[in-house]
Design a protein that fits this description.
With 281 residues, the protein is an alpha/beta fold. It contains 12 helices and 4 strands; from the N terminus they run αβααααβαββαααααα. It folds into 2 domains: 163 residues, no CATH class; 101 residues, no CATH class. A 4-stranded mixed beta sheet has the order 1-2-4-3. It is globular.
Length: 281
């Protein structure tokens, strides 16, 4: 009965999705190929995929890439198995909303450049971003086996989508502690529901690096500046912060708090960041 409760609630609360509600897929590539005005395409993409989202400004980096040639886009389109993508995405969405009921999903899909070795190799073919509640953008490397990791990546982003729906407050400060737990919870959820993912960003630190990095983060846990947040999460070699340090620290903090305990995912998502930060030794 506990697993069915979110579905029951979604039936009773207007505007919340139920398993089986179709995703609103938006495929960027055909729009770009058919367009004659690149700016108009970009504006239309933003209106459909990001506008009104709590993190809309962050999504601009996922807009159609003008560096992709027509030939590259045509080749990517030809090799894309849309039916396979939609089947995986829909089943993932149905599974997630059973735990985290949320409004209908607009899923915008595009391709990376074929020479994007970082996405192909390090990210295993999939990168994604949540523009806001019910708004997720995915980019696929046209030559990678993106299907294997797509459920994990979508679950991670849909966790962000649910958090944005339930917990986002525009006037509230978003601190480094918040960011660590925000990403850590999303990765922990995706790992628990869809199985371990060899995500490089959650295994970027060994035990000694983790301890040293958490100690280095402690004086800045209340910081809100973009420089501190980005440097901590993605790495800052000049400051001695390894690549993806914040993601690894966040995941380990959440795992330490939740491993071996019952998982009420909605309640976990409502927990304050401070509940995941251990006292300094």
């Amino acid at each position: 009965m506990k697993r069915r409760l979110p579905l029951l609630l979604s039936l009773l609360v207007p505007g919340l999705a139920i398993a089986g509600e179709p995703i609103d897929f938006h495929y960027t590539n055909p729009q770009v190929l058919a367009a004659t005005d690149a700016k108009a395409v970009g504006d239309a993409w933003f209106a459909r995929c990001a506008s009104g989202g709590q993190f809309a400004d962050l999504a601009r980096g996922y807009a159609p890439d003008p560096r992709l040639t027509r030939e590259q886009r045509e080749s990517a389109e030809k090799g894309f198995d849309r039916a396979r993508f939609e089947k995986i995405a829909q089943s993932t969405y149905d599974r997630v909303v059973a735990d985290l009921p949320q409004g209908r999903l607009t899923l915008c899909v595009d391709f990376t450049a074929p020479d994007d070795a970082f996405t192909r190799d390090r990210m295993q073919g999939v990168i994604a971003l949540t523009a806001g509640s019910g708004k997720v953008v995915v980019k696929l490397h046209p030559q990678a086996d993106w299907a294997k990791l797509l459920p994990y990546v979508l679950a991670h982003e849909l966790h962000h989508s649910y958090w944005a729906q339930e917990q986002f407050h525009p006037d509230a400060a978003f601190t480094l502690a918040d960011y660590l737990v925000f990403e850590g919870r999303a990765d922990y959820y995706a790992n628990q529901v869809f199985g371990a993912h060899p995500a490089p960003w959650i295994h970027a630190l060994d035990d000694a690096q983790y301890s040293a990095t958490l100690a280095a983060f402690r004086p800045n846990l209340g910081e809100t500046s973009p420089q501190v947040l980005m440097g901590s999460m993605f790495g800052n070699p000049q400051a001695g912060i390894p690549m993806w340090a914040g993601y690894s620290v966040g995941h380990r903090l959440v795992a330490a708090r939740l491993d071996g305990k019952p998982h009420d995912w909605a309640a976990i998502t409502a927990m304050k960041a401070a509940e995941f930060i251990p006292a300094a030794e």
